[in-house]
Amino acid sequence: MQTFYTVALLLVGIILTNIIKQFLPKIPEAFILITIGVMLSLTPFFKNFELQPEFFLLVIIAPIMFIDGQKQSFTKIKQRFSVIFLLSVILALVSTLIFGLLTNIFETGWTLPLAIALAAIVTPTDAVAVKSLTGNTDMPGTVGEALELESLFNDATGLVILDLALAVLSKGRFSLLDGLVHFLFVAAGGVLVGIIAGFLIVSLRVNLNLRTKNPETTVIPISLLTPFIVYLLAERLGVSGIIAVVATGIVHNWETSRLRLTSTRVQLTSTTIWETISNVLNSIVFLILGVSLPAVWKAMQIIGTAKIIQIVGVSLLIYLAMLSVRFLWSVRQSRSTNDNLLGAHDAKQHRFFASIFAISGVHGTVTLAMAFSLPSEIAGHSFPFREELIIIATLVILISMLVSAVVLPIILPAKETTYSLADINHIRNKMVDFATLQIRDLISEHDVRDALTEQLQSQKGNHINQVEDFRAYQRLLYETKDFMLTYIHGPSISQKYSAEVVNIYEKVLDCYEIGFSNRKVHLIKYLSFAMHKYGEKLHHEYKHAMWHIQNGQITPHQRKSARKAWLANQSVEVLAKRRDIRDALLELNTEVINASDLYIDDVLRARLVNKLSDNDHINFVRQAINKYSMQIRHDYSKNTVYVDSNYYIQAFQQEYNFIQRGINSGYISPAMAAVLYDEINQAQTLQLQRVQQVLAITA
């Protein structure tokens, strides 16, 4: 149960973050997650929480790196191999060496291997953290790509160097040749294991995709297990599990190119699952960082104020050294490499991009996990300065995040969008209304027509102005009622129905207050109207009850007996006339409702011609008229209406057509069109799945 509550609280933390960031949009999501993580550490389930590095790397980091690898293609890796090698390996090695020597100079009590171990810990960067901190800024694409390529393998580079440093501390000696051989074995071995395992797993998945009837039941579970299997296999063979997982992810990108448009359901489902997992795991990373901070704070309280000041100074020095190394590295490389790396067109722009690249070297939870992975004992003795190393690593993480969060939004331009939320709501509403009108003209059955309309209108969401909607709703409601009264007194109705039937229907229409039943109208006016109608209803019920009491018809049995007695006293002609009038009223009601539908459609069509998109009140009026029709028919049950899937396909096609015409006319931008196309694709997939489920149930 402990594990269950731990996972549940982490998920609750993610949910709370997504709620809070709606109210604090300017605060980076990473800081909200860290703060909530600190709050979670106060709960009994996270009390005395200690990060387990092996578990963290396997369960959290391995899937994240696998997902990052899937985003890279063989072609891109081939073209950018030199850049990846420079960033992930050479820059990491140079940074580690410089940080280690610098730390060794200022921390005189530390041995060089210990300083190198710290340098290896603070070397890995976190591109996800950078994205979280710069979500509202326009990061240059080439710099963002360089940061992603750097983070692909520098985690593994840092882990390998840390492993070497710990080996030296354990054995008390260092061989450059042995260290180089070990590094190459671990790194190259990880790549080899990842590629071989990746091709084997991909081949299995491709065959299952093409040969089995329900491939998603086997292919997707295999996909979910892949990063864990590859990581454990690589670590078992003594090579880098992180590098192996990244290599396997890159190979899996090849699978997509092999499948192309086959097995689309598997590919869509798998992509959706992995995107969700990626978002959750990346959030958990920052939550765990926050949960781990109290343990670091306790360690700081133990070592004393003077030592804390010294450690803070060393942390600042390491960060400044890292900043300088990253900036000089990207500035001083050969011109061709720089252009290839940062995509700069001139020296000034190149220096600007180099400064962004340097400041964006944010460290994350991998650094903290590596710090906590330091053993308590080594070579039969307590690990020297373990608490100090953990504190320095934590401070470097926080400093790098704070500097990036403050500086990058200042030097980078704000992210610009070609459309606002109001713009896309405006176009979406018009698109849905256009498709609704087009498809309603093709359907003769009222119930089917309205069921389809309700489904299509739900695409709009809840972007409504209650006050304005109420006024427009009330106005159209009375206009529709006037139309219905005018219609029943028209020549076509007079010729078909008797004056008695028309008069009865008119009385029913006058007595029944159509509408005001939708809860999305203005609250005060709705409550006032509801109280008035409730008072009228109570008065009517009182008179009804008194009549039954006076006539001795109190119980249901007494009422039923009185009804039978009354019918027995009526002549056959009277009863037949009553049935004829009732049938005529129902038939007239159907005609009136169909005519009202056409009238409301014309109102909507006219508003679209005038380029008006705030048409929610029209759908509310349609609902009120339908409710009136149901009460006339005494049909209070909400029966499921089957809508042919072809109607949905045609409706969504009309939405596609609307967007395409908007693009051709120039009033829908490509960016807005992409968002709407994606919404239609998802709505179409979901709706067709629901239709299939209904068919399966009724079959």
TrEMBL record:
Q: Please report the record's description of how this protein sits within the membrane.
A: Multi-pass membrane protein
Which InterPro entries does this one have?
Cation/H_exchanger_CPA1, Cation/H_exchanger_TM
Provide the protein's localization: Cell membrane
Tell me which UniProt keywords the record has, alphabetically: Cell membrane, Ion transport, Membrane, Sodium, Sodium transport, Transmembrane, Transmembrane helix, Transport
Q: What residue stretches are annotated with the Cation/H+ exchanger transmembrane domain? A: 10-412
Could you state one GO biological process linked to this protein? Answer: regulation of intracellular pH
The membrane-spanning stretches of this chain are 6-23, 30-46, 52-69, 81-102, 181-208, 228-251, 272-296, 308-331, 352-374, 389-412
Q: What GO molecular function terms would the record report?
A: potassium:proton antiporter activity; sodium:proton antiporter activity
The organism's place on the tree of life at top rank = Bacteria
Gene Ontology CC, one term: plasma membrane
**What is this protein's record name?**
NhaP-type Na+/H+ and K+/H+ antiporter
Give the species this sequence originates from: Weissella oryzae (strain DSM 25784 / JCM 18191 / LMG 30913 / SG25)
